[in-house]
Design goal:
328 residues; alpha+beta; Jelly Rolls; Arc Repressor Mutant, subunit A; two-stranded antiparallel sheet; 14 helices; 18% strand
């Protein structure tokens, strides 16, 4: 199947290299070799296998997959996702896979005076301020700007990049996905293709530090640990006890804790406590929730006990942590 969208507008006999798919679980075309993929996982959790190791991912999360990505899900629970497929040539004609993968654009990304590496955003600012010695091939600043939008698809190892999202971040991305879907399906006027390109650019333009990674880069060697970790993430706000976990996974306490100690150097319940503190730290930094609301979201019914656990792990109260991180 060609992942294209045909025009339905009178007089527009064309198609564009963009395709939108919404499904329970993941799209059947997720490993297509002819497109880049932007995936928004709206709900649920899953474990993905990568070279014999396992990554635990919990929604909401955004994913960028290039044309070489091998996305293999070994377990999932309640996943709902939407996927935008597009060829980079849709954004700019010269952005073929061959050109992008040849390394020619790395000349730009490395062309900083003094040979120092910079973040993409700082790099673009330096380019605007004429602080970069350009290769003669890259005198067109718009080419440099556009290739930066695609860096998640070709600059990082692994071929898949994950970004966990706060509720506010999710709402922003979800609106842009909905806008792409509307214009692809409804095609309300002859400008629909331009708007699709604009919305995809907008999704790609969201700076990387907007999406703070939320333990999404941890890899596990033991599939049992990965499955239990996925369960813990998805039910972090619930009253999770050790007997509940042992029953859910039909496993002996010693076997479970031995597996966790070997993998993460702590027991299963200690790991759960660490996950809850990590989630609380992210919410304290990037959400408008109150301390009591964050306590509940992280599975603590009593705010006082949550504060005690948080201080044990961080050395400061939740409110002091929030002030310190936001004043940086």
């Amino acid at each position: 199947m060609e992942l294209k969208t045909k025009s339905k507008r009178p007089g527009m006999k064309c198609s564009v290299d963009v395709f939108y798919d919404r499904t329970d679980g993941f799209s059947e075309h997720i490993n297509d070799r002819t497109t880049y993929k932007i995936v928004l996982v709206k709900s649920g959790s899953f474990v993905a296998e990568e070279n014999g190791e396992y990554r635990v991912i919990t929604a909401p999360v955004a994913m960028a997959l290039n044309e070489r990505a091998e996305f293999k899900v070994v377990s999932e629970s309640n996943v709902k996702s939407v996927t935008i497929y597009f060829k980079p040539t849709f954004l700019r004609e010269e952005f073929t896979f061959e050109a992008i993968n040849s390394g020619k654009y790395e000349k730009f990304l490395s062309a900083v005076k003094g040979g120092d590496k910079m973040s993409p955003l700082d790099l673009f600012i330096a380019a605007v301020n004429d602080d970069i010695e350009f290769d003669p091939e890259f005198t067109d600043l718009s080419v440099c700007q556009d290739i930066l939008l695609l860096e998640d698809f070709y600059r990082y190892p692994g071929n898949i990049v994950y970004y966990s999202l706060t509720p506010q971040e999710y709402d922003t991305v979800n609106r842009l996905f909905a806008s792409v879907r509307y214009d692809l399906i409804e095609q309300p006027d002859n400008l629909w293709i331009l708007r699709v390109k604009h919305f995809i650019n907008s999704i790609l333009f969201l700076p990387a530090d907007f999406f703070i990674n939320f333990r999404q880069y941890e890899l596990y060697k033991d599939p049992l640990v990965a499955d239990v970790a996925r369960y813990l993430w998805e039910n972090l706000d619930k009253d999770i006890t050790l007997p509940v976990i042992l029953k859910e996974f039909s496993v002996n306490k010693n076997i479970l804790n031995d597996a966790f100690n070997k993998e993460v150097s702590m027991s299963c319940m200690s790991y759960l406590e660490q996950l809850r503190v990590d989630r609380a730290k992210k919410l304290l930094q990037f959400s408008d929730c109150s301390i009591s609301e964050i306590s509940s979201i992280c599975g603590y019914k009593e705010t006082a006990y949550f504060s005690k656990v948080f201080k044990k792990h961080t050395g400061m109260t939740a409110s002091d942590y929030q002030k310190s991180i936001r004043n940086r």
